[in-house]
């Protein structure tokens, strides 16, 4: 078999743990394989002859031998998170430190197969997964490994901690961000508040990828706000005020992936960031949850087609405020509503409507604009009223999304128009932990529409989730042509982004690529960004491939993993995009989670800049549809489907 190492960023497999056995295994006799004279791997510039690792055959295939223990080794491949790769890669297993054996683990990244093989007279043959004196076990995933094109291997997670010994011994400053010092929130001082803000500022300055993108969009550089926040820290007196300040500072970074974690979110991500979210951090955030102030307006004026329209509210909102559905806010505190939104860009998350070239918020919260906010509202009958809308202390997003897209708990909706030979799938989210569970449901449906002419896939309102979900459950089963897709991610030069990216196995360096890609943001070509990550995904036609036309319905809510799916669908030629420009912030798989050293507040910051096929930043330009269509009537989710059926599909046939 000819196996060639090419650059990839998401080959995920794991060496997890050692098993204890009472009887020592037999040493398998084998001829020594000629390897490179110097056995070493470079990680972040570190170089050493680590015991038990021989990474490369001389003048032959790339491989790694992981002799963790002279008795036993356990290896895990995580099939769910493994990206579809064109080539095959494999691991070799050395049963003791002194000898490379003729046994290896075969990792077939293309077909996602893990097997044990033996070298029989120069030919590798698959054997059983258990031998006398040697066993292979499949266990839980713990950490990834990534391959660097032509250079070697980057080891992360459990391997990084246990073979390289201790990652924080090489980067001691990381621990200084969240030392186990004990937490008594009532004793936090002003100087400790300032130390926490300095820690946030440091992480952002050297690691956050979007400082320049956001300056181009919003007209300010976040780093220039430091003096403003320091002055406010001198004025505040309570922990509640400190939490509000940190939340505001993080929101003013203007990125949907960048946030202060509330307690519920910390619990969700605790396992993934177990080395950072310790018991002490978890306990501290129980305290902060009690200080967390939510704000949910009693009337939702949601941004739709460039205007802020009343789409619903809480309890008897119509009678209480004399407002009808479809009413529009035209002024806030006697200022044009768009100007008012522009005035709060340093206070809350404000987004960019690329189709209308203006800034917007998803909905109008009176608290965005100060106390005693007055909305000037134009009702559908043309009458104008001025109202002060009250807020409660509930979390607003579930209520808002229910109003916009309905309250269905089903992840899918399937339809067929037999007379038009057209099928429809609504995919509301790409959930974590559901990839394998949902896959048979989707595959069964694909088989029933194999002879149809048209497939509509609706991901409007899909905020993302698991990137692998859309790739494995939609793209890979349905794409009709063997296709290779290439895209890039840009990373900052900061130590924390570097450490976190290596730990997650998503950061591989290709510094020479900067000079070969057109339209890159100018900051990426500077020393502020150390490298690009090249990502190659290979899609092979499957037995459920759809031979007809595919249309992907998108809108501004399509974000993160859903954004990546939309971009890959367009780039690969899998589907034509229909709707409005997407929400952006895709084509990257790395986030940075860190803890403020004194307060233990947990902050999540996006770790890389996804680069579109044309070289622009995905977060800056997003993904544009092939067919542009906005709602003609607000709250009419069917209008785009009807338009597509009557004006595009019928005419094309």
Query: How many E-type strands?
Result: 36
Point out poorly predicted stretches: 1-101, 107-114, 128-179
| Secondary-structure-derived class | alpha+beta
| Amount of beta strand | 15-25%
Biggest pleated sheet: 6 strands, antiparallel
- The shape is globular
Termini separation comes to 45 Å
What would the average pLDDT be, to the nearest integer?
74
Helix content: 25-40%
The radius of gyration is 27 Å
* Count of discrete alpha- or pi-helical segments spanning 4 or more residues: 18
What does this structure look like?
The chain is an alpha+beta fold. Among the domains are: 13-168, no CATH class; 296-394, Pdz3 Domain (Roll), CATH 2.30.42. It has 18 helices and 36 strands. A hairpin with a 4-residue loop joins strand 21 and strand 22 (358-360). The radius of gyration is 27 Å and the shape is globular. It starts with 12 loop residues before the first strand and ends with a helix.
Search tags:
653 residues; alpha+beta; Pdz3 Domain; 6-stranded antiparallel beta sheet; 6-stranded mixed beta sheet; 36 strands; globular; disordered N terminus
């Amino acid at each position: 078999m000819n196996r060639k190492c090419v650059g990839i960023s998401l080959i995920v497999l794991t060496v997890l743990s050692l098993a204890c056995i009472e009887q020592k295994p037999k040493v398998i006799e084998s001829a020594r394989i000629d390897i490179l004279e110097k056995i070493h791997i470079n990680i972040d510039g570190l170089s050493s002859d680590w015991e038990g690792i021989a990474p490369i055959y001389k003048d032959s295939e790339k491989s790694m031998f992981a002799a963790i223990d002279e008795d036993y080794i356990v290896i895990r491949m995580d099939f769910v998170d493994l990206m579809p790769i064109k080539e095959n890669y494999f691991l070799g297993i050395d049963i003791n430190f002194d000898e490379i054996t003729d046994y290896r683990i075969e990792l077939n990244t293309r077909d996602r197969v893990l097997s044990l093989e033996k070298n029989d007279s120069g030919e590798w043959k698959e054997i059983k997964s258990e031998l006398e004196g040697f066993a292979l076990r499949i266990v839980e995933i713990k950490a990834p490994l990534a391959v660097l094109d032509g250079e070697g291997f980057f080891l992360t997670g459990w391997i990084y901690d246990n073979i390289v010994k201790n990652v924080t011994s090489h980067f001691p400053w990381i621990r200084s961000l969240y030392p186990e010092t004990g937490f008594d929130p009532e004793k936090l001082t002003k100087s400790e508040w300032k130390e926490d803000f300095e820690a946030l500022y440091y992480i952002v300055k050297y690691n956050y990828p979007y400082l320049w993108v956001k300056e181009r969009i919003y007209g300010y550089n976040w780093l220039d706000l430091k003096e403003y926040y320091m002055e406010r820290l001198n004025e505040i007196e309570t922990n509640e005020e400190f939490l509000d300040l940190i939340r505001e500072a993080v929101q003013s970074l203007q990125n949907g992936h960048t946030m202060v974690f509330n307690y519920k979110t910390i619990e969700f991500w605790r396992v993934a960031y177990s080395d950072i979210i310790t018991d002490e951090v978890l306990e501290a955030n129980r305290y902060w949850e009690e200080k967390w102030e939510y704000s949910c307006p009693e009337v939702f004026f949601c941004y739709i087609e460039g205007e802020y329209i009343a789409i619903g509210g809480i309890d008897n909102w119509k009678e209480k405020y004399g407002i009808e559905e479809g009413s529009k806010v035209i002024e806030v505190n006697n200022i044009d509503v768009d100007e008012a939104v522009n005035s709060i860009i340093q206070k809350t998350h404000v987004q960019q409507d690329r189709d209308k070239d203006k800034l917007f918020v998803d909905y109008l919260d009176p608290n965005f604009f100060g106390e005693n906010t007055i909305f000037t509202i134009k009702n559908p009958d043309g009458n104008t009223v001025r109202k002060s809308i009250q807020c409660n202390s509930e979390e607003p997003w579930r209520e808002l999304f229910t109003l916009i897209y309905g309250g269905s708990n089903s992840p899918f909706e399937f339809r067929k128009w037999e007379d038009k030979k057209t099928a429809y799938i609504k995919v509301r989210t790409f959930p974590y932990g559901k990839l394998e569970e949902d896959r048979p449901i989707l595959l069964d449906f694909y088989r029933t529409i194999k002879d149809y002419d048209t497939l509509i896939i609706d991901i409007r309102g899909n905020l993302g989730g698991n990137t692998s979900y859309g790739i494995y459950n939609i793209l890979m089963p349905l794409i009709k042509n063997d296709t290779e897709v290439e895209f890039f991610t840009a990373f900052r030069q900061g130590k924390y982004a570097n450490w976190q990216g290596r730990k997650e196995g998503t950061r591989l360096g290709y510094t020479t690529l900067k000079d070969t890609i057109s339209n890159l943001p100018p900051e990426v070509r500077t020393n502020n960004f150390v490298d690009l990550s090249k990502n190659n995904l290979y899609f092979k036609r499957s037995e459920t491939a759809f031979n007809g036309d595919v249309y992907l319905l998108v809108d501004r809510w399509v974000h993160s993993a859903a954004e990546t799916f939309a971009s890959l669908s367009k780039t690969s030629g899998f589907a034509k995009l229909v709707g409005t420009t997407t929400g952006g912030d895709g084509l990257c798989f790395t986030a940075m989670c860190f803890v403020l050293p004194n307060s233990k507040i947990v902050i999540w910051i996006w770790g890389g800049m996804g680069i579109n096929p044309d070289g622009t930043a995905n977060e800056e330009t997003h993904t544009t549809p092939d067919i542009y269509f906005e709602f003609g009537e607000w709250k009419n989710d069917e209008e785009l489907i009807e338009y597509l059926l009557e004006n595009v599909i019928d005419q094309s046939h």
